[in-house]
Amino acid sequence: MGYIIFSAICPWIAYSLRDWRLLCVITSVPLAAIPIFGKFVPESASWLLTRGRQKEAIALLKTVARVNGNDYPEEYGDSCEKSSEENTDATALDLFKTLRLRTNSLVLALTWFVVYCCYHTNTQNASNLGTNVYDSFTYSSLVEIPSLFIILFGVDWLGRRWPIVLSSLVAGIAGLVILIIPKDATNTYLGLALIQRVTITIVYNVIMQYSAELLPTVLRGRGLAFLRVMGTLGLYLSPSIVYLSMTMPGLPLVITGVLMIFISTITVILPETLHKHLPHSIEDGENFGRNQSILDCPCLNKRSVEEEVESPYKLS
Questions:
Q1: Does any domain span residue 33?
Q2: Does the record's keyword annotation contain Membrane (predicted)?
Q3: Structural domain of residue 61, as residue ranges?
Q4: Quick one: pLDDT at residue 176?
């Protein structure tokens, strides 16, 4: 929400300053506080266990229990001490060593690349929507608010996979419809661009949580770093796509539409993570989702979480 509010305010700060250097300074200064907040963010207990740091994991879990006003079950300590220390030497290359894990990693990498590219293409294309650039950028920022509410309720009902598949499909259709609307239909063009912004934002946010859940704990940090690099590469491509508006005003949104339909078709093969025991080891990651079908949906399929892979790091 903070990102959306500042994005909506930013064009008016730029309008007031009329100096891009001063704008860069003002918008960059708050970033200096990030290292300070990092000291107050605890490490993941699951990650500590997979690295063989059981004592630190137990201390962290005791702190969590104390802060939440709960008693720490001592049997959890025994479970931690007995946890296997295998895969502590895992590297990013392990993402591609087994078939299912390799498939999931490649699909996620393509999704991050395309979604980052399409999101920033839509953002940078605000100046080509046929209205005042300050108004266009503000509107395109504020329409992300509905996407947050859709995410809040949608991911607990439809899961992670289907919001990505359906939102990508809608974004793609919105982009392709631009091909058949009259050139002077400015309001229709703006509306389709905003619909695409909402749906791409849904995918942009859900894929971050989905990736963290789908990657095994021992590879999560390295895997997310790899995916972030892929997303950044896609971001670098977006200015070139926006420049194509010189040839045809709606072409950037048409291209993002085609790309989002592609994402809709490939992400459908990924396993669902809602209400499942998430993978911790590489073996868990390879076996995760084997008993799921492409058509599985949490709102229709009420299978118990016990049907999914059991992890040696589960504290119960």
A1: yes
A2: yes
A3: 42-87
A4: 94
